[in-house]
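Thread title: Can someone regenerate the structure for this chain?

I was given the following input by a collaborator and told the matching structure tokens would be attached. They weren't. Posting the sequence so someone can regenerate them.
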Amino acid sequence: MLKATIDADIFRETIDAISALVPECRLHTAEDGISTRAVDTANVAMIAITLKKEAFDSFKANASEIGVDISKMKNIFNMASKGDLISIELPDNAQKMAVSVHGYHYSITLLDTNTIRKDPNSPTINLPGKVVIAGDDLNNAIKAAAVISDKMALGINTKDQTFFMIADGDTDNIRREFSKDELKSITAMEARSLFSLDYLKDMGRVMSKAAEVEICLGIDHPVKFSFDIAGGNGHVDYLLAPRIEAD
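Best answer:
Regenerated them for you:
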């Protein structure tokens, strides 16, 4: 059972964060909010997201798992205007979810959870390097790199106490270094890994709205991006596997 109302911008922010990686997911409801954890079809990236009940104008739910077509929900919420409230109602054991927004009333058929990949386990990885950066600074660097290449290295230089982002194309390259003064904070442990810009671009568009993003790095290890949404009443973790550089 789920019955809730929420500001359209907050819920759209949540759906956008999920849709950056997956078109559908298992959404878990509980008394204290909603959550999901999912991996993309290529097993390259993972999202874990929570939205506390405090993010909602009203919220009542019990523990359940529902299959949600994220792509469809994203299209629906494009109908919403700033300041609109979204109303969601799902009775116990129902196969359809009622969604009302901006005068439109939808009855949305839920997906069979048996057809959706099971929630991945959260991996335990030691990522000693840590940087906290403004979301728009991070996204701007990703966009700049995408003009040059389809991959980008992220790393930390312990000697200079800097966070660097490097992209090498066939004929061109770009490097952006963020000094300690440009960052919110830095834990300067040696780190460098290469990542696909296709994934970084999709994540970057979401992270651009975050006041700060925590980036955890290692050497040839995945990168973890962590940031808050919904005015601090929601949280997103992205985990992206590295690309292996040819010798």
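The two ends are 54 Å apart (CA to CA).
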